[in-house]
Amino acid sequence: MNHCPSPAARSLCNHARGASPRRHPGNSTPVTVHFRRHKKRRLSLDNRRGIVINAAMRRLSFIFAALLAPALHSQTAPSKKAAPQKTVLAPTFLAGLDSHLALTYARFGTRELQLDLYRPSLRNEALPAIVCIHGGGWFKGERANMTQLAQALAVRSFVAVTISYRLTREAKFPAAIQDAKAAVRWLRAHASVYGIDPDAIGVTGLSAGGHLAALLATSGGVAQLEGDGGHGTHSSAVQAAMSMGAQTDLESARIGELSAKADDQFYRTFFGVPQSEIPGTFVLGSPRHHLDRADPPLAFITGELDDVSTRADEMRRDMMKLGIATGLAVIPQAPHSFLGQQRSFDIALNACDAFFTLHLKQRSRPPVESTLALPLFFPDARWTMLGGVYAGSEGAQWIGQKLHFAAHHERLAFTWTEHSGLALRRDDSPEATSFRPDGQGGFYVVEQTTRQLARWNANAERTEVLADRFEGQRLNRPNDCIVRSDGTIWFTDPDYLFALRKEELKELTEQNLYRYDPRTRALSAAARGFDKPNGLAFSPDERFLYVTDSRGFDVLRFPVNADGTLGPREVFAALKVKGLDGLSFDSEGRLWCAAVDGVHVFDVAGRDLGVIRLPFKPTSIAFAPAPSRFVCVTTRQAVFVTSLR
Prior knowledge:
By secondary structure, this protein is an alpha+beta fold. Among the domains are: 89-250 and 285-323 and 343-361, Alpha/Beta hydrolase fold, catalytic domain (Rossmann fold, 3-Layer(aba) Sandwich), CATH 3.40.50; 392-595, Neuraminidase (6 Propeller), CATH 2.120.10.30. Strands 1-2-4-3-5-6-7-8 form an eight-stranded mixed sheet, with helices on both faces. The chain has a five-stranded antiparallel sheet with strand order 9-32-31-30-29, with no helix packed on it. A four-stranded antiparallel sheet has the order 10-35-34-33, with no helix packed on it. Helix 1 crosses helix 11 (342-361) and helix 4 packs across helix 6 (208-218).
């Protein structure tokens, strides 16, 4: 497994620069953050006056992985002295759009609420729709503030609408969210008129609009928030949401302190009184409060200079535990209101496009893309996405028809079955992965926090530490483990994360492959001389052990001697990419290998039969036992399951 930083270590390098932003609902004081350079994750953006056509955008995987990973890695930082370029959309960019302006979607007496709708003129099929909600602290702003984003999304083959809603000078909470829900119902009622897919409606918004977008996503079925804006026979539920620069936990102490100030023009004005006087109303208006397992994917974008509360860290963790797809993009050098800056606009546009493509156009089920000549998959095969977006997921293991895996850097351990769905096993895991059956109803696991090989019982509780030292020195970072039929446990021990976890002492000078015998409790170095030893797999007859080294190009093979020792290493297969990770054999004896560009499949002679592409970099592979045909691939950000032929 190639490690992403843990949440605690996910800091960034290069001081944030720029003037202190003005106070607003999402930014009480300026925040200094740091960005870490990582050239493999730099974005390649073509900032041509509003049309950002990134070659990599054709491949959802790289853009989505870069933009909605738990922290966005910066491209080259802008010059200190360079003023941000104002967002502009060229006329040629807009020429292919149909515009339907000032459409009335709700009436309250003589008061009409209107929306503007944009659609690609040459697309006749029903398209997903995205509602774009403006900000302004709920007391100011207009739908025209979101016109550029809506138009740019329409060019990307969405129907996009901007909406007006009742501001606090006209009506207090819950009027604004009721208006947003009325707009969604109007879209469904008029889906056939404007070529909208009624089962694929998303929402995005900035600042106060981002709060309303998040609340729309999590408050489906909350009768108090529906209102009487019309089209009541249609649902106001959305299928995906992107919240930008928004507050999502209105029960927090921070919001309580802000609303208690006599000059607060945001929360006190929106709700009518401070949080302390009507806490129940703040609860009703809090997106985090309404979270449940049925909620749609909800991701977040924020500026580097915005208040850290807009990153929704606690809400995103709640969502991960529930199995709701989420994510965060932090735009370098960006303030709270970033859509007016061309570079920030382009990044946000690409993030929205990738997110809504995955969750609206593809229904969170991206197609299986493969160069294999073998018909391993059905022609219309799709991956089912489980959870995400994590800081890393690993350790796929089927035990019967139940899948076990970990979002290890989030300290979460899960199970999944086809009929019961995703279930959380632990939310305090010591970064455990590789849940291998111990023959007693429990598991052998490697724990990256404790740097140990351990045994867990059936309740996912640690019962025994099997190995934590070699020749008197602490292990590095046990990574992958497998169990041979003789009961011995084999695990790799790379030295990941020491550069990020400065408080930890690296004691061993080498990175080895180890063999542990539970009967004698002896730990021995089965093979040495690795740079970053990673994935492991025994051949079906256990005559060979296969190993990857993430710093190399080769899948290595070792003959297993009768006494359990290993013979000399040999190259089984050579790839043109590094970043090799997990290994697994399928029922036909083919070896599947996770690599930076996808999952490679090798025949028994080591010939590369092709590569299976996924939305993110794969990390481990596991096949369900017969009669099931499920295969699971964990990736850095999410877990995917599909069926083989």
